């Protein structure tokens, strides 16, 4: 269902020939109205891809009529020509759809530093437009995959309105955001300011808290488009919760499909003095290569958790730290706790709890283990 | 030669039985005077091992008579009992050597969260004391190895005085400092304040700028001991340069022996607005797992360099960034530069230059590639 679960949207996904292997590589999502309110969040990387720079301009008006997304090339670090290519893509879509170019968002993903084959991409936009369908969400989700092994979609439906979405992302996954593209749609009748508020609140506690490999992308974009076709304006809290739920579900799907990963690691920081402290400690643990290797080896190496906590500026006393791995408190008061032999690490999900004993705040960061497969996937070829 | 290259020092290295495999695991370095001035730098990790906490107290007086070092166990996160064990070690050495316990520094390295076998360590101190020799530096350097494949020593000799040292460290190598122990000795007649100044200046630009895996240890200690046996007080600049040269040499040896590494990567940041900017950018590049995998695959993936630069707060404009890999400017003005096929990456050393085009400051950070061997070494067993 994906982006076409909500009323007022059509989508398509095709193989335009951007990828040399002939796999689907171009998606089009169109808001058929009656409204076209939108909000978006983009990477905080200061080296932003051309489509990110363009889509930031588009989002200023709070209106998006359509989104063109391509895999097979990030169009990042491609200079003025790269920006012209993004602009030409928006103009082509606007022309075919009868909309204004400034209402066409563009997203790209793939190798950095390579120009897109515009002789394939522009005809591809026409082909995709001809295949637009209210059932096209699945095909669109498939067309934006890069190293993803599965496509990711999610839908929440409540009384009279729906929030649905699609996502791609498998490597370069880190907060602010990840190498990921996400398009969310809703048929609720919500203005762009409300969409923006709900989207930022949702990404802050979902996509911004998954950190597969600590690497921040140049292309990340999360868009939320509202058609108003459901003719219902929900309560803000209810709507924001639906957006958060879809973002959370998609984020979990990203972590479960991360490059080379064998374990999904839930890092839960509890009893922190502030939420910022909890997030800082969670990220430090999630980015510790030695710990990620240990988890891969099913070794409950809590010393590496403590050494990661120790690099942060969070409030804590070293001799009051406690760490549980899969429910066993292997570290108590900064020293040896329960028998580490009790920790069962056979399953894919690993749960680490770091108790800072410094307050009442908490945060969860999701990450993956570090594996030889990750190294292989990111060294054997350019991506 | 190592720590006994300078006059006024004796050392020993023995197998005390701390390591189950029977390899050497206990070193003793004694300053035989006439002076016993000393300075030290320890990890900035807030979770500090018991020997670090003890040695910090020892260093307050600016006087160190001897150093006891053990491999086979870090004595970190071991609570009050761990601290008592360190204290007992210092008392034992003081007793055997006829010195005050507060002048005995202690260093430990190995697995975190395990108490040391004191029934083996304390008799080991006696055995080592009995084997002290002016030619014992090499044996001491061997006894502090953990996952090191070779022992590391360095000596600079000038007119009438010498600075020599030994180091261990192979994983958990990151600034502030690394999982490394370093003991430097000199027969120059230098007071502890001058030693401290020279040592801090040296570590800031050497050990603090090697970053193999971004992980900061709980045990790192660098000690500089002066015997005054050469009866020469050098000019400060000359002395500081000798200390820096020995630290630089030992740091290079650590990088070349890093766990699982196949490439040594020199990240040189040039034309930065400030030295801090240069260091921040260098560290961000050096810690980027995706780039480190690409280098392992001999792929000059400059897009990953730019995405790492983009996560920093340093002064730069994205469209003015230039990147050279092994002398080929593969990225110019933030976009595609010279043909990446020209980059020869067959050799072990890889040189990345990141030109921020924002000033005149520079910094060099050394790191390694990320390999399946690193993953294996850190997942197959606890360390």
Shape of chain A: globular
Distance between the termini of chain A: 29 Å
Order of SSEs of chain A:
EEEHEHEHHEEEHEHEHHHEEEEEH
Percent helix of chain A, as a range, is 25-40%
Major sheet strand order of chain A: 13-12-11-14-10-15
* Total domain count of chain A: 2
Task: Kindly provide the radius of gyration of chain A, computed on alpha-carbon positions and rounded to a whole number of angstroms.
Answer: 21 Å
Supply the CATH architecture of the largest domain in chain A. 4-Layer Sandwich
Reported for the largest beta sheet of chain A, the result is: 6 strands, mixed
Structural class of chain A: alpha+beta
Per DSSP E runs of 2 or more residues, the count of β-strands of chain A stands at: 15
Strand content of chain A: 15-25%
Low-confidence stretches of chain A: none
Largest interface: pair, residues per side: A-B, 65 and 66 residues
Classified by CATH, the class of the largest domain in chain A is Alpha Beta
- What's the pLDDT, averaged over the residues of chain A? 90
Q: What is the tally of helical segments of chain A?
A: 10
Q: What is the third-level CATH name, the topology of the largest domain in chain A?
A: L-amino peptidase D-ALA esterase/amidase
Q: What's the multimeric state? A: homodimer
How would you name the CATH homologous superfamily of the largest domain in chain A? L-amino peptidase D-ALA esterase/amidase
